[in-house]
Write a structure and sequence with these properties.
Blueprint (H helix, E strand, L loop, with lengths): L8 H12 L40 H7 L5 H14 L4 H9 L3 H9 L9 H15 L3 H25 L34 H13 L5 H11 L3 H27 L191 H21 L11
Helix pairs in contact: 1-2, 2-6, 3-6, 4-5, 9-10, 10-11
The chain binds a DNA duplex (14 and 14 nucleotides) through helix 5, helix 6 and helix 10.
DNA sequence: TCCAAGTCAATATG
DNA sequence: CATATTGACTTGGA
C-alpha cells in the first residue's frame, strides 16, 4: 500500500511532455486516467492505508517512471542534499513527505545512489520523485510548511501530555506503558535484533571471499560455527552481496565524473567511516584525488570486498588478497567444502575480549579450503565503446497547459488535518521536468580500488553468468 | 526454492 | 536532535 505522497496530476502532465520529447507520437492507446488518490498520510501513526480502492490506485508515478528518460541519479542526489542542507531540512521529513520512504532509506539512497541503468522500475521511482521535487519551485517552501506543521503538532502533543497524561492512542492496548521510560519488561516477543559481533562479521566476510554463494550446507556450517541462526547467515550473505554490488556502482559513478571542475562545488564528502578495528592495510593504491584539506578521510575504507583484514602478528592467514591478481588457489572440487573460520581475533594486548554475547566460540577448525572457481578470466576493463549517447537534454520551457482538464480532481497538497494551506498550489506548471545533463559516462576507470573490488566480485558475477548461461538477454555485466 | 532489489526499522554515530 | 548502518522482511523473477 504505497501511499503516494504528493499529488501527481501535475507530474503526470509534465511527464507526458517529457516523454514526448524524445519520440513524438506514441502512446495513444492506453492511457488511462491517472487517478491518483492516496494522500500524504501525514505519516503519523498508523496509516493503515485503508486502500479501499482495490484495484490499482497509486499510479501515475509509476507511469512516469516507465517513461522517464535516463536520469543522473548521482547528480540528483547531490542536488537534493544541497537543497536540504541549505534549508535545514532533514531527510526524515523529506523522505516521508516527498518520497514516501523512511529516514534510513533516504540516507542510503542519498549516500549511494545506484546508476540509473542499474535500477529497477521500482528503484527509479524515488529518483523520479526527487527530480520532480527539484523542479518544483515551491519544493522548499512546501517542506518548510510541513516542518512547521509538524512542529506545531508536536508542541501540542507535548503540552497535553504534560498536563494530562498522554491520552494519545489508547489504541495500543495492552502492555506497554508508553514512554514511561522503563524499558523494563522488554518484550521478549519483540525480537532483540541481532547484532553481529565484529568477529562474526569478519568470519562471514572471510567465508564470503571463498564462496560468495555458499551452499545450504555451508551456510549451516557457518551458522553452527558462529552460533547464529541459519537465516541470519543467509540474510547476511544476501545483504553483503548486494551492498558490495552497490559499492561498485558508486565507484563507477564517481569515476565517471572525474574532474572536479564542477561548478557547483559542494564537496560532498564521501562517506566513509573509519573502520575501526581492522586497519587499512590496503596494499592497493590509493586513489584519486587527494581530499581537500586536512582531514584525510579515508576515502576508501572499503570494508567490503576487502575483508582480509588483520593478520596479526605474523602468521599468515589465508586471506585472500583480492587485489591485482585474482586469487586463485585451491582447485575446486565441486562439493566438499569445509570451512573453518578462526574467529579469534587476537588483538594486541592481551585481549581477553569477551564478546558481550556469550556466544561460544566455535571449535577450532582446521584448515580451510574450499573450492574455488577457476582462475578467473582476468578482468579486463573493457570499457570503451562509449555508447553513451545522448542525452537529450530536455529543458522544457514549455508553456503551458494544454490541457483541458484543469480542475479535475486534484487534491494535491498534502493537507494534514488541520491546517490547510490550501491556496498556494494552483497552477503549477512544472515544466522542465527532467533535465538531463550528463555527458557521456565514459569512465576510464583505471582505478586500483575499483579493480580490486571488481576482482573481488568476480566470483559473484561468474556465478550469475553461469546461471544465466541459458539465456541471451541483453545483460551487460561489467566485469 | 533461490536470488536480487528495495525497504523498513532498530541501533549506532555524530 | 539528525544521519548512517544494517539484519530482516517483502516483492518479483525464474
Amino acid at each position: 500500500a504505497p501511499e503516494s505522497p504528493m499529488s501527481s496530476s501535475e507530474s503526470v502532465k509534465s511527464l507526458t511532455e517529457l516523454v514526448q520529447q524524445p519520440c513524438p507520437a506514441i502512446e495513444t492507446s492506453k492511457d488511462g486516467k491517472p487517478q491518483e488518490s492516496s494522500e500524504p498520510p501525514v505519516s503519523e501513526s498508523l496509516s493503515t492505508t485503508p486502500l479501499p480502492l482495490s484495484g490499482h490506485s497509486a499510479l501515475s508515478i509509476q507511469e512516469l517512471v516507465a517513461v522517464s528518460p535516463e536520469l543522473d541519479t548521482y547528480g540528483i542526489t547531490k542536488r537534493v542534499k544541497e537543497v536540504l542542507t541549505d534549508n535545514n531540512l532533514g531527510q526524515r521529513l523529506f523522505g516521508e513527505t516527498i518520497l514516501g520512504l523512511t529516514q534510513g532509506s533516504v540516507s542510503d539512497l542519498l549516500a549511494r545512489p545506484k546508476p540509473w541503468h542499474k535500477l529497477s522500475l521500482k528503484g527509479r521511482e524515488p529518483f523520479v520523485r526527487m527530480q520532480l521535487w527539484l523542479n518544483d519551485p515551491n519544493n522548499v517552501e512546501k517542506l518548510m510548511d510541513m516542518k512547521r506543521m509538524e512542529k506545531k503538532a508536536y508542541m501540542k502533543r507535548r503540552h497535553s501530555s504534560v498536563s494530562d497524561s498522554q491520552p494519545c492512542e489508547p489504541s495500543s492496548v495492552g502492555i506497554d506503558y508508553s514512554q514511561g521510560a522503563s524499558p523494563q519488561p522488554q518484550h521478549q516477543l519483540k525480537k532483540p535484533r541481532v547484532v553481529l559481533a565484529p568477529e562474526e562479521k569478519e568470519a562471514l566476510k572471510r567465508a564470503y571471499q571463498q564462496k560468495p554463494y555458499p551452499s545450504p550446507k555451508t551456510i549451516e556450517e557457518l551458522a553452527t560455527q558462529l552460533n547464529l541462526k541459519t537465516s541470519t547467515v543467509i540474510n547476511w550473505f544476501h545483504n553483503y552481496r548486494s551492498r558490495i554490488r552497490r559499492e561498485l556502482f558508486i565507484e563507477e559513478i564517481q569515476a565517471g565524473s572525474q574532474s572536479q571542475a564542477g561548478s557547483s562545488d559542494s564537496p560532498s564528502a564521501r562517506s566513509s567511516r573509519a573502520v575501526h578495528s581492522s586497519e587499512g592495510d590496503s596494499c592497493d593504491g590509493v586513489d584519486t584525488e587527494g581530499p581537500p584539506e586536512g582531514k584525510q578521510s579515508g576515502l576508501e575504507a572499503d570494508e567490503y570486498s576487502n575483508a582480509t583484514t588483520k593478520s596479526q602478528g605474523g602468521q599468515a592467514e589465508s586471506a585472500f588478497e583480492v587485489g591485482e591478481e585474482v586469487p586463485q588457489d585451491a582447485r575446486s572440487s565441486e562439493k566438499t567444502e569445509s570451512f573453518h573460520l578462526e574467529m579469534e581475533s587476537l588483538e594486541d594486548t592481551d585481549d581477553e575480549g569477551r564478546l558481550k554475547t556469550p556466544r561460544q566460540s566455535s571449535p577450532p577448525g582446521s584448515q580451510s579450503l574450499g573450492e574455488t572457481l577457476e582462475t578467473m578470466p582476468n578482468s579486463a576493463t573493457e570499457e570503451d565503446a562509449s555508447t553513451s549517447a545522448a542525452s537529450t537534454s530536455v529543458l522544457t520551457g514549455e508553456s503551458s497547459f494544454k490541457s483541458k482538464e484543469s480542475s479535475e480532481k486534484m487534491l494535491s497538497v498534502p493537507s494534514t488535518s488541520s491546517t490547510l494551506a490550501a491556496g498556494s498550489q494552483k497552477a503549477n506548471s512544472i515544466q522542465s521536468l527532467f533535465s538531463f545533463s550528463e555527458a557521456a559516462r565514459s569512465k576510464n576507470t583505471r582505478d586500483n580500488t575499483l579493480r580490486k573490488k571488481k576482482a573481488a566480485n568476480l566470483n559473484n558475477i561468474i556465478h550469475r553468468l553461469e546461471k544465466a548461461a541459458s539465456r541471451e538477454e541483453p545483460v551487460e555485466w561489467e566485469f
